[in-house]
């Protein structure tokens, strides 16, 4: 993960030499992926989720209320919630289609 630029190693002790790992900007950008994997695991891999993320927020009289975090995907362009039924694939990589690499004869 260090070689891929997801984490960086920082020395926290010189005698003996010891390191701790910190997320890079690229690593922090993986947060939505990690939350999606956690949500999948909570639904399909365990009977009782081992952890829960809590969110403090709301407006008006609900301000500063804390509740379990329930994430959704929202399109930044139109503001609508995104579900699998509303997605299409536009393959832009040369030599590829929706099935994968195009065989050349």
Can you tell me about this structure?
Helix content is 17%, strand content 26%. The chain has 105 residues and is an alpha+beta fold. The chain has one domain. The strands form 3 sheets. Strands 1-2 form a two-stranded antiparallel sheet. It has a two-stranded antiparallel sheet with strand order 3-4. The longest helix is centred in the middle third of the chain and has 14 residues, at 31-44. The model has no long low-confidence stretch (mean pLDDT 90).
Question: What gyration radius follows from the Cα positions, in whole Å?
Answer: 21 Å
Number of helices: 2
Strand order of the largest sheet: 1-2
Q: So what's the overall shape? A: extended
How widely separated are the two ends? Answer: 38 Å
Largest sheet: 2 strands, antiparallel
Query: Could you tell me the mean pLDDT?
Result: 90
Order of helices and strands: EEHHEEEE
* Strand segment count: 6
In terms of DSSP E residues, the strand content is 25-35%
- Report the structural category: alpha+beta
The amount of helix comes to 10-25%
């Amino acid at each position: 993960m260090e070689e891929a630029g997801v984490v960086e190693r920082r020395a926290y002790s010189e005698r003996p030499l010891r390191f701790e790992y910190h997320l890079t900007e690229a690593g922090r950008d993986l947060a939505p992926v990690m939350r999606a994997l956690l949500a999948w695991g909570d639904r399909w891999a365990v009977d009782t989720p081992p952890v829960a993320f809590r969110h403090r927020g709301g407006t008006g009289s609900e301000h500063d209320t804390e509740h379990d975090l329930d994430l959704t995907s929202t399109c930044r362009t139109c503001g609508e919630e995104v579900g699998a039924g509303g997605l299409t694939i536009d393959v832009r990589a040369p030599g590829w289609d929706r099935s994968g690499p195009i065989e050349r004869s």
